[in-house]
Design goal:
Layout (H helix, E strand, L loop, with lengths): L1 H7 L30 H18 L1 H11 L11 H12 L8 H27 L6 H31 L7 H11 L9 H29 L9 H24 L1 H11 L14 H12 L8 H35 L1
Helix pairs in contact: 2-5, 2-12, 3-4, 3-12, 5-6, 6-8, 8-9, 8-10, 9-12
Amino acid sequence: MASEAAATTASPNDLRPIPQPPDFHPAVIVPSQPTGLRFHQLMVAGSIAGSVEHMAMFPVDTIKTHMQAIRPCPIKPVGISQAFRSIIKTEGPSALYRGIWAMGLGAGPAHAVYFSFYEVSKKYLSRGDPNNSLAHAVSGVCATVASDAVFTPMDMVKQRLQIGNGTYKGVWDCVGRVMREEGFGAFYASYRTTVLMNAPFTAVHFATYEAVKRGLREISPERVGGGGGEEEEGWLIYATAGAAAGGLAAVVTTPLDVVKTQLQCQGVCGCDRFKSGSISDVFRTILKKDGYRGLARGWLPRMLFHAPAAAICWSTYETVKSFFQDFNGDSTTA
């Protein structure tokens, strides 16, 4: 009897952990697959993220637009500091924020469409596989085609206000004059170029974001998905993955962004006006006037814009999603 009692009261030191396979990571959590969020909540999260992103980085975007706008005068290489000093000297500090209201009017609705389309497409195409990079890329392309249709008109207004010192009195004056003088089609003159630019941009962006986020989780799985400091670690993962994705995608697509700026700013402050609006015509004009370096104009501020902007956007988006997930959980338990 004594021996049986001893056998049934084994000490904790005698217990051995069950060995797990090498790839067993119980703490790895991929919250972005089944979001459990309603469609309107995804739109709200995307709208907030897009607005915060563009508003925070707007001065850098203004500098990029000035660097990319090619005028008839002899063209010289323009750096970030030179463009910044020129804007401050000739137009004052407020010029860095000219057009910000047009950006606000366009960015919120466009990003609402962007992220909601992305989440729905990703859920359908990935079929529950969080490692399906192709599904992430295709979902991003679908999202950008839809969102660009919403954003392009106000993006055109924003760029004209950025470089048109005194040309327009404000957002609605620009909208009215463009409608009267150039017609409705002028608002979508760069739509084809924008889609051709943003499709590869978004494919690279989303595929890189999901891959980097997944890689960072695998590097430090025990610090993802909890509370307190672990939540901060999750935020850092979103920001780091977003910055890497935004910076890489921005550099790859800069030539098409230069073409888009030319089409949207044509006829304003001495910028060339194109008869056909053909992408190939704009490419030839840039190469004739500025050579191949003209296609790289503004690549550095574009990267400096998109890297932190994507970090801000993704971390804001994931934070708002987490808020709605907690809110939905509280509502179901109440």
